[in-house]
Amino acid sequence: MKKLSFIIILIVLLESCGNDVPKPVPVYEPTPVTLEMPEVFKDRILPPIIPVDNPLTEEGIALGKKLFYDPILSGDGSQACAGCHNQANAFAENRRFSIGIDRKEGTRNSMPLFNLAYNYKEKFFWDGRAFDVENQAEGPVENPIEMHNTWDKAVESLSKSDVYPDLYKKAFGTEKITKELTVKAIAQFERTMVSANSKFDRYLIGKEDLTFDERMGYQIFLSEDKGDCFHCHGSIDNPLWTDNSFHNNGMDSVFTDIGLEEVTGNPADRGKFKTPSLRNLKFSAPYMHDGRFGTLDEVIEHYSEGLVFSPSIDPLMKSAYKGGVHLSKTEKRQLKAFLLSLSDDSFITNAKYSR
């Protein structure tokens, strides 16, 4: 009997001690996502750049998408990232200059957003002032002409939300919302915006043929004596259709916007702006850093007849001394046909990127 009582007491003590042992806290693991390279990119360009400290996850991308479309980040809660980056316009905007929450107009055209994960030079905006996608996502919130907020206030608004703390917990394992985690989430979403299904893409992988004009236009694009476009915009070996570098492309002799020089302080960079991709031109008018050209015909006319010399003009603008490459009417039509074949209709309707 005494032995039985001792065993019962021992069991009670053991159970009591067990209750004092803290149970392990479950660690939340977001679901990894791999950014698959489109077929047309394979063997032509390097894999996407995904930072070690900001890997893609389902939960991070979902949070970034919600933030991209939510005006909560702006000073008065009226304007989201998507306000200046509309999917129907290849995440650009169909006006020359964007208008911020105070109805102030900017001085540059909104750049389209796609294939950002393949920007190996890691410089963003027309003047290259952002050094990665996260930094690119950070700037507009405090820009006085854009969202005109402070990050402290933006974080406070997110923290008071009924939904965001839980979404941050799922994405990053913490309900403590910070600027750093916010821009990481937006960057994750933006890195998933991949455009690689244009008619020319399908031609390159043997799924569709080109018209005669599109074929001839591509030859004009490649010709040193005709379009001479490939130096800055690449060819079939660079299906991003941009060198992601900066050039003075002969638009002005005197500059009110000095472009890259504003970042580097080097007078040799005056009037240099980032080379935009030629993808999705069908949707992203107006064109150039200041949206001065409303149509693709005007862009072609600039390089054909309108080049202007300045001390910092890019050496690649070899025909600047004679005002342009002087294409015939037929050549202009054919070059335009090729350029439009680089537009990806599926990108602007892809539900993965929609609100």
What distance separates the N and C termini? 73 Å
Total beta-strand segments: 2
Percent of residues in β-strands:
under 5%
Radius of gyration: 26 Å
**Major pleated sheet:** 2 strands, antiparallel
- Low-pLDDT parts are 1-14
| Spatial shape | globular
Question: Helical segment tally?
Answer: 12
CATH architecture classification name of the largest domain: Orthogonal Bundle
Share of helix, binned: 25-40%
Short description:
This protein is an all-alpha fold and 355 residues long.
Furnish the topology, listing elements before pairings.
Blueprint (H helix, E strand, L loop, with lengths): L1 H19 L37 H12 L63 H10 L8 H10 L3 H9 L6 H13 L7 H6 L7 H11 L7 H4 L12 E2 L13 H4 L8 E2 L21 H10 L23 H12 L15
Antiparallel strand pairs: 1-2
Helix pairs in contact: 2-5, 2-6, 3-6, 8-12
Characterization of the model:
With 355 residues, this protein is mainly α. It has a two-stranded antiparallel ribbon. It is globular, with a radius of gyration of 26 Å. The chain has two domains: 137 residues, Orthogonal Bundle (Cytochrome Bc1 Complex, Chain D, domain 2), CATH 1.10.760.10; 149 residues, Orthogonal Bundle (Cytochrome Bc1 Complex, Chain D, domain 2). The protein starts with a helix and ends in a 15-residue tail after the last helix. It is 34% helix and 1% strand. Helix 2 crosses helix 6, helix 3 packs across helix 6 and helix 8 crosses helix 12.
Keywords:
about 350 residues; mainly alpha; Cytochrome Bc1 Complex, Chain D, domain 2; 2 domains; 12 helices; 2 strands
